[in-house]
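Run log, item B.
One chain of 275 residues. Sequence copied directly from the ordering sheet:
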Amino acid sequence: MYHFFVTQDQIGPETITITGPDVNHMKNVLRMKPGEEILISNGVDKDYRCQVETLDSDAVTARILSVDEEGTELPGKIYLFQGLPKQEKMELIVQKAVELGVYQVIPVAMKRSVVKLDARKEETKIRRWNTIAESAAKQSKRIVIPEVTGVMSVKEALAYAADFDLKLLPYENARGMAATKEQVEAVRPGMDIAVFIGPEGGFEETEVEEARAAGFYPVSLGKRILRTETAGLTMLSILMYQMETAKWVCAPAQKWTFVMPGAKAFDPDISFVEE
């Protein structure tokens, strides 16, 4: 089933109107006909299963068949702060990060970044990366289209993440996996989580110290050195698995019960039980 995105003002009580480039794509590329079913997301919190009614030159009208408010989004928001890699690597990172559930991708210009973007090139790249994000969101049936922001400096990125609930910095010199497990098990619903990944050349030690001072926790992803495009996707996969497999139940005392095999309590506000 083909997937499209609209804004809230395009959604009526019984029908949804699709406009813009998607109209030409539906008519002339997909060659859709009245009666075909499609999936439409409002980009916020709902999916609509619809049936195409009319295809005009500048708009497609679809009748709403059902509404899904559960969706496919993770129960928390993951922000990927990605040290600028080479072009083809960034495109891969954006595509796969969206598939894994990332909420936003923030490119970061770092001391060891090979790529240096001027204002004109940055605008073109950001537009390209957001197009890739939209395509990946459609393919993976996301409700939200994750945004790729403008490029930030390290200082700007750390300030942007100042109020996040959990800040992780995968780093080859971090202590063992037990610490990583402890941090990952801290994840709970509604959290804003920052993941900071270095570029091809890795972090400068001064950047790691700045991140530590800003509340980022260095974590290990194993004994092997991972490429920049592998490290971020590995961390996102771990967080996605944690969010998708753990079961949270809000108890009467407003504490979260976290059900995870082998989990250990570390936070007095969270109780852990083995499933």
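Observations after the first pass:
- The longest strand covers residues 47-55.
- Residues 251-258, 260-275 have pLDDT under 50 and may be disordered.
Flagged for discussion on Thursday.
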